[in-house]
Amino acid sequence: MEVKGMRRLYIFDMDGTILPESTGLLELAKKLGTETQLFELEKQFSERRITTYQFTDLISKLWGEIDKNVSFSAFQDAKKIDHISECLAEIKGRGSLSCLITMSQDVFASHFSIYGFDHIFSSTYPPHSDEYFKILSPEDKPLIAMDLCNKYNLDFDECIAFGDSLSDEPLFSKLTETIAVNASPELKKISKYNYSGNSILEAYRMISF
Q1: Long-range contacts of 172-177 (CB under 8 A, 24+ apart)
Q2: pLDDT tens digit string along 37-69?
Q3: Range of 47's domain?
Q4: How many domains does the chain have?
Q5: Same domain, 140 and 197
Q6: Residues in contact with 93: Cβ distance below 8 Å, sequence separation at least 6, in sequence order
Q7: Is residue 3 part of a domain?
């Protein structure tokens, strides 16, 4: 149960959760005219013919450098779940923190900062550059959350997580307060709350304060 006055970390997934029925990669592919190529790479990945690292590397080689105006246009055109800013404002009003953790690339995910997330973690684009890069996996989600909790002196066990698919399972399996948002049957089975609808604020308010 949510304790009044308790500072907590609220963790949000992006693809499928605050981007209903879509992903950052798909929204970029639409803008770049490469949906067919993306679907082929995703098929190869789902069939385990390429690894996460190979998939991400091939995507960046397909697209090359992406102009920020193009990525922002893709972001603007993407359908998002309603009331993101309002939800984050309520979290901040309680003295708590919010973060977005996604395996998608920063070239798209970073634009969500305009909604008020305290932190955004995503895979680096492009991964084949000579600069430092990080490609996130589902197993990174709880590790990132733990690091943030240590940094801000928060209790990891009291974190709240929002997600939609089994890529959120490594995080959900370690927490009690979990909210499946328009989620797969598999994730619903391991979630405390299940929400179907168009408002992340409504999902957030399912928690007992």
Answers
A1: 174/142, 177/2, 177/207
A2: 999 999 998 898 998 888 888 998 899 999 999
A3: 24-76
A4: 2
A5: yes
A6: none
A7: no
pLDDT in tens, 151-206: 999 999 999 999 999 999 999 999 999 999 999 999 999 999 999 999 999 999 99
Evaluate if pTM is beyond 0.85: yes
The one-letter amino acid at 96: S
Question: Does the residue 4 lie in any domain?
Answer: no
CATH number at residue 131: 3.40.50.1000
Q: What is the pLDDT of residue 1?
A: 41
209 lies in some domain: no
State whether 31 and 95 are in the same domain: no
Taking CA atoms, 198 is separated from 72, 79, 89, 195, 204, in Å, by 22, 11, 18, 9, 12
> Closest by alpha carbon to 164, among 26, 23, 9, 8?
23
Within-domain flag for 1: no
Chain segment 107-117, per-residue pLDDT in tens: 999 999 999 99
Which pLDDT value is given to residue 129? Answer: 61
CB 135 within 8 A of CB 56: yes
What is 11-69 written as a DSSP string?
A: EE-TBTTTBTT--HHHHHHHHHT-HHHHHHHHHHHHTTSS-HHHHHHHHHHHH-S--HH
